[in-house]
């Protein structure tokens, strides 16, 4: 995973990619953070499964009223998440792989 991430972050279309050990080490550290975050989220989901099943009868879609009732921080995070999804989708559709890795890393490290 770290090698794949390192290759994506340093890819420039049409150019050879120099790859240093430091780049791979940084990618490994970030991949570990993603793994730990995912493990935490899955653990919390399992702990709260009954509560989530009762509350999430409509899946992950929220009505305008539900969004307005959310605390400001949750609304801001959902909005930022939608922006990240749009940005990454557009980059991938354009076969541009390095920019979405930067956007995702910034989102995970700074916002999530």
Automatic annotation (TrEMBL):
Enzyme Commission number: 6.1.1.9
Reaction(s) the record says it catalyses: tRNA(Val) + L-valine + ATP = L-valyl-tRNA(Val) + AMP + diphosphate
GO molecular function, one term: ATP binding
GO terms for cellular component: cytosol
Keyword Ligase: yes
Signal peptide: none
InterPro entries in UniProt: tRNAsynth_Ia_anticodon-bd, Valyl-tRNA_ligase
Gene Ontology terms: biological process: valyl-tRNA aminoacylation
Keywords: Aminoacyl-tRNA synthetase, ATP-binding, Ligase, Nucleotide-binding, Protein biosynthesis
Gene3D superfamilies in the cross-refs: Isoleucyl-tRNA Synthetase, Domain 1
PANTHER family, per database record: VALINE--TRNA LIGASE, CHLOROPLASTIC_MITOCHONDRIAL 2 (PTHR11946:SF93), VALYL-TRNA SYNTHETASES (PTHR11946)
Protein name: valine--tRNA ligase
Naturally occurring in which organism (per UniProt): Strombidinopsis acuminata
